[in-house]
Backbone:
C-alpha cells in the first residue's frame, strides 16, 4: 500500500511551484486535486515541448511534476469559482497554494480555522512586511539568496543555476512542510498554517553564502575558473570529456597522487601547505592532466573510486539515463502521457526521490499528468453539483 | 511557541557534512529530540583541526568548534562523540537505535552494514525505527561503495553541463552543493510518510535515498530536451529563450548587479514606463510584443542595460517593483543584512555560542502557526551531551567515566601536533 493513501490534497495556483510542491503527494498515493485556471497556468506553459510545438498538455514541467493528479479547471476570480473551491477545501486535509500575495491572503481567509485543511502558502517574501507584495521569479529569488553571487566569476554577472531549480527547491520545501503539518494535526489535533517565503527558504538552506559569511565574516573571493587554492576541486578535461574531482584533502588527495603515479606529491609541502598550495597549482595540473588526457571519463571514474578518490564523470543530458547505475536502479521511468493526437506520448521522467522498502517497491508510482480540466466533471459530481449546475458553471465561463 | 510537531520524536544522526545533518536540524526546528552521534576520535569532515582554514571564524576555543559549515548544519540537536568501531561504542549505538524512531546515516553504501548495523540488524533491534540511508548512488547498484559529495552528483545529473557562462568552458563551471540543499527536503517527506505507514503497520521503514536520484528529480527539464527533442540543453546563463528581458544587468556602483525580468506584456509596459520610454510598449513598436522582444533580444537587452546602470541595484529594483516588474538586487554574502524585509520579519537569529563572535545568523526556512521554529540549541560542542544522553540510555555514572577513560567517548579531538 502506498504510504499516503487516504490523504486529500488541494493544489491552487497553477504555477510551477504549486505543481512541484504536490508531486510527491500524488506519486506516494495521496489524492491530489490540481485547481488551475481554465486558460492553463504557468506550469503548463513552460518549455520544452515535443517538437517545440507549445501545447497546454505537453510541457515538460507539467508532464514531470503533475503526475497522477486530477485537474479541476476553475476560475477563482469569480464568486461561482470560489463556491466550488469552498466545497473542495471542505473535503481536504491540506491546501498548498502559490498565488500573488493579495489573492493568497484572500484564499487563506476562506479556510475554516477549525475544520478546514492545513495550509501551505508559497510566497516570495512572506505574507507580511514591506516586500510582501513584490513579485519574483526563479532568477530574482536566486539573486536574493546569495547563491548567484558565489556562482560567478569576479567582474562578470552573477549566474543562477539551471532554469527553475531555485523555484523547484522552494516548492519542495513547501511540499515537505505540508506533510509535516498534516502529521502534527494527527498527533495533537491542532490545524497548522505554514508560510514558505522563497527568499528565506533559499537563503536559510545550505549551499547559500549568507550563513557561512555570518559565522566567520570571511568573504570568499569569487573564483575564476578552476579553484587554485583548493585542488583538485572542479572539472578537468580528459580524453572524452571531463571528470569532476572533490579530492583536495587527505585521504582523497593522497590516494589520487598514488593513482596518477606521483605518490610523493601527497607529502610535498608545495601541494599540502595551505600557504604554498595556490602558488603551485600549475605544477600540480601538469602532473594530473596528462594522466587524464589518455583516459576516458568512465575509466577515470572507476579507477579513482576503486582507490578511494571522490571523482565523477561529467555527463550531459543524453548520457545520464544510460549511466550503468541509473540503468540498474531504473532511475528514470517512462509514463504514457495523453497528447494532442490519438497516440500517447512516451515521456521519460526521473523515478522516486527515495526508495521506500525496496528498490522497486510499489510505494512510489508515476501516472500520467492530467489534461487541462480532465477531471472537472468527475470532481463536480463528487462535490454534489447536478448536471444542470455544472452546465451553468461552464456556460458562465467558470469551469473548463 | 517553538516547534511542537515532532515533540517526542527521537532521531539518531550518524551523518556528516550537510545532506543528513541539515535535515536533522530541520527536524530539531520542528521539535524532534535529535541526538547526533559524532565520529570520534577521527574528526568530522566539517570540523578541521587546524588553521588556516577559510571556514573557521576567529576566536578562542578549539578550531573545530568555530567552523561555518559545521554551524550551518547542526542547530537544535544534542551531541555525543563515540568511537563506534569499538565494541563498547557499538553498544552505545545499539542502545540509541532501541531508543530512536528514526536513524539517519550517510555512509557510503555497505559501510554501516560492515560495521554490524545493516538494515536487518537495525530492524531487529527496533522494528519501529525508520532508517534513512543517504549514500550518493544509493544502497544497490554497481557503484556500491563509491564516495562523493554533492558536487559530483551535480556533474552526473547533467546539471553541471548547463551551468556557467554561455561562452565559458566546463572547467570554469563552479562546483556547487545543490543536492545538499534539496536532499533533506526529500528525506524528511519520506520520514513523515514512514511515520504514517507505521501507524498502520506498526513497523518502521527503510528509506534508500540516492542523492543523485533525488537531485535528478529537480531537473527533469534537462533530460526532456533530449528525450522530447533529441537536443542537448544549452548553457543559458541568466537568459530565457522565451522571455525578454530576462537577465542580470550591471547597476551603478562597483560590482553591483540587478536581476530583471518582464514575463508579460503588462510587465514590459511597466518597465518601459519606469525607464522613461513608454513608447517601447505601444502598439506598433517592435518591442511591444513578446515575440518582437525575442526577435530583438540584443537591442532590448542593451536598452535595459542602459536603464539598469542609471542607479544602484536596490533603487532600480525598488522602482521596477513599485510598477509591478520582477526585479531584485543580486546579493553578496553579507548583503541580506541590508534587507528591510528580513528585519521586518525578524528572520535573523542571534545565537549565543561560547566560541563564536556575536553575529546575526540566518534564520528558518518557514513559519508555522501555531508553532513556529525556534533556535533552542546552538550547534552543540563535541560530545557536549555525552553524560546526559548516556544516563538516559541507562549507563551508570561510573560506567560513563570508564568509557571516557577508555576513549570510547570523548569531548575533544586529539591535538594534531
Residues:
Amino acid at each position: 500500500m502506498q504510504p499516503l493513501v487516504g490523504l486529500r490534497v488541494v493544489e491552487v495556483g497553477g504555477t510551477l511551484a504549486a505543481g512541484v510542491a504536490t508531486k510527491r503527494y500524488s506519486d506516494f498515493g495521496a489524492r491530489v486535486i490540481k485547481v488551475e485556471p481554465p486558460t492553463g497556468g504557468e506550469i503548463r506553459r513552460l518549455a520544452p515541448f515535443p517538437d517545440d510545438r507549445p501545447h497546454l498538455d505537453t510541457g515538460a514541467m507539467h508532464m514531470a511534476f503533475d503526475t497522477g493528479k486530477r485537474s479541476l479547471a476553475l476560475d477563482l476570480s469569480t464568486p461561482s469559482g470560489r463556491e466550488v473551491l469552498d466545497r473542495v477545501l471542505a473535503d481536504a486535509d491540506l491546501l498548498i497554494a502559490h498565488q500573488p500575495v493579495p489573492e493568497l491572503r484572500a484564499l487563506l481567509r476562506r479556510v475554516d480555522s477549525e475544520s478546514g485543511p492545513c495550509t501551505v502558502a508559497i510566497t516570495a517574501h512572506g505574507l507580511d512586511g514591506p516586500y510582501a507584495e513584490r513579485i519574483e521569479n526563479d532568477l530574482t529569488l536566486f539573486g536574493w539568496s546569495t547563491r548567484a553571487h558565489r556562482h560567478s566569476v569576479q567582474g562578470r554577472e552573477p549566474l543562477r543555476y539551471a532554469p527553475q531549480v531555485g523555484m523547484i527547491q522552494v516548492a519542495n520545501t513547501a511540499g515537505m512542510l505540508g506533510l509535516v503539518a498534516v502529521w502534527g494535526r494527527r498527533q495533537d489535533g491542532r490545524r497548522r498554517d505554514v508560510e514558505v517565503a522563497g527568499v528565506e527558504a533559499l537563503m536559510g538552506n545550505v549551499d547559500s553564502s549568507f550563513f557561512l559569511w555570518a559565522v566567520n565574516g570571511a568573504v570568499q573571493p569569487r573564483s575564476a575558473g578552476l579553484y587554485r587554492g583548493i585542488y583538485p576541486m572542479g572539472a578537468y578535461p580528459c580524453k572524452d570529456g571531463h571528470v569532476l574531482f572533490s579530492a583536495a584533502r587527505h585521504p582523497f588527495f593522497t590516494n589520487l597522487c598514488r593513482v596518477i603515479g606521483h605518490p610523493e606529491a601527497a607529502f610535498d609541502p608545495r601541494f599540502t601547505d595551505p600557504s604554498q598550495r595556490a602558488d603551485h597549482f600549475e605544477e600540480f595540473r601538469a602532473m594530473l592532466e596528462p594522466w587524464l588526457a589518455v583516459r576516458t571519463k568512465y575509466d577515470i571514474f572507476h579507477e579513482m573510486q576503486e582507490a578511494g578518490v571522490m571523482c565523477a564523470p561529467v555527463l550531459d543530458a543524453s548520457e545520464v539515463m544510460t549511466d550503468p547505475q541509473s540503468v540498474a536502479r531504473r532511475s528514470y521511468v517512462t509514463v504514457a502521457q495523453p497528447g494532442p493526437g490519438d497516440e500517447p506520448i512516451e515521456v521519460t521522467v526521473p523515478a522516486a526521490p527515495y526508495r521506500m522498502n525496496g528498490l522497486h517497491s510499489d510505494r512510489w508510482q508515476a501516472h500520467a499528468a492530467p489534461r487541462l480540466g480532465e477531471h472537472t466533471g468527475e470532481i463536480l459530481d463528487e462535490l454534489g453539483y447536478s448536471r444542470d449546475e455544472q452546465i451553468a458553471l461552464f456556460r458562465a465561463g467558470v469551469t473548463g | 511557541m517553538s516547534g511542537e510537531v515532532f515533540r517526542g520524536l527521537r532521531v539518531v544522526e550518524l551523518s556528516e557534512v550537510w545532506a543528513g545533518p541539515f535535515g536533522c536540524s530541520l527536524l530539531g526546528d520542528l521539535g524532534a529530540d535529535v541526538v547526533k552521534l559524532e565520529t570520534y576520535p577521527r574528526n568530522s569532515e566539517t570540523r578541521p583541526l587546524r588553521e588556516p582554514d577559510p571556514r573557521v571564524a576567529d576566536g578562542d576555543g578549539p578550531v573545530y568548534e568555530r567552523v561555518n559549515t559545521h554551524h550551518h548544519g547542526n542547530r537544535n540537536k544534542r551531541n555525543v562523540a563515540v568511537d563506534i568501531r569499538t565494541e563498547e561504542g557499538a553498544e552505545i549505538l545499539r542502545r540509541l537505535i532501541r531508543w530512536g524512531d528514526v536513524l539517519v546515516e550517510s555512509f557510503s553504501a555497505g559501510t554501516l552494514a560492515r560495521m554490524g548495523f545493516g538494515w536487518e540488524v537495525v530492524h531487529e533491534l527496533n522494528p519501529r525505527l525508520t532508517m534513512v540511508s543517504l549514500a550518493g548512488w544509493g544502497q544497490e547498484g554497481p557503484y556500491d561503495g563509491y564516495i562523493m559529495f554533492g558536487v559530483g552528483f551535480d556533474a552526473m545529473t547533467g546539471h553541471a553541463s548547463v551551468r556557467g557562462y554561455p561562452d565559458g568552458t566546463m572547467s570554469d563551471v563552479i562546483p556547487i552543493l545543490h543536492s545538499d540543499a534539496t536532499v533533506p527536503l526529500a528525506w524528511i517527506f519520506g520520514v513523515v510518510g514512514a511515520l504514517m505507514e507505521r501507524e498502520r503497520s506498526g513497523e518502521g521503514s527503510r528509506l534508500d535515498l540516492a542523492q543523485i536520484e533525488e537531485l535528478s528529480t529537480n531537473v527533469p527539464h534537462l533530460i526532456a530536451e533530449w528525450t522530447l527533442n533529441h537536443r542537448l540543453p544549452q548553457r543559458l546563463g541568466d537568459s530565457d529563450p522565451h522571455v525578454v528581458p530576462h537577465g542580470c544587468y550591471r547597476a551603478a556602483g562597483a560590482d553591483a548587479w540587478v536581476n530583471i525580468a518582464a514575463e508579460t506584456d503588462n510587465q514590459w509596459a511597466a518597465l518601459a514606463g519606469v525607464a522613461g520610454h513608454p513608447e517601447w510598449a505601444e502598439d506598433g513598436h517592435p518591442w511591444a510584443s513578446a515575440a518582437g522582444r525575442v526577435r530583438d533580444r540584443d537591442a532590448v537587452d542593451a536598452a535595459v542595460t542602459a536603464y539598469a546602470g542609471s542607479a544602484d541595484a536596490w533603487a532600480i529594483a525598488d522602482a521596477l517593483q513599485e510598477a509591478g516588474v520582477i526585479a531584485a538586487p543580486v546579493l553578496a554574502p553579507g548583503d541580506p543584512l541590508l534587507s528591510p524585509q528580513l528585519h521586518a520579519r525578524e528572520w535573523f537569529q542571534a545565537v549565543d555560542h561560547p566560541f563564536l563572535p556575536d553575529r546575526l545568523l540566518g534564520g528558518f526556512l518557514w513559519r508555522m502557526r501555531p508553532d513556529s521554529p525556534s533556535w533552542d540549541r546552538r550547534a552543540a560542542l563535541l560530545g557536549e551531551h555525552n553524560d546526559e544522553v548516556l544516563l538516559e540510555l541507562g549507563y551508570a555514572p561510573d560506567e560513563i567515566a570508564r568509557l571516557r577513560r577508555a576513549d570510547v567517548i570523548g569531548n575533544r579531538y586529539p591535538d594534531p601536533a
Observations:
- The domain at 8-207+330-395 of chain A is CATH 3.40.50.10540 (Rossmann fold).
- Chain A touches chain B through 152 residues (CB under 8 Å).
- The longest strand of chain A covers residues 31-36.
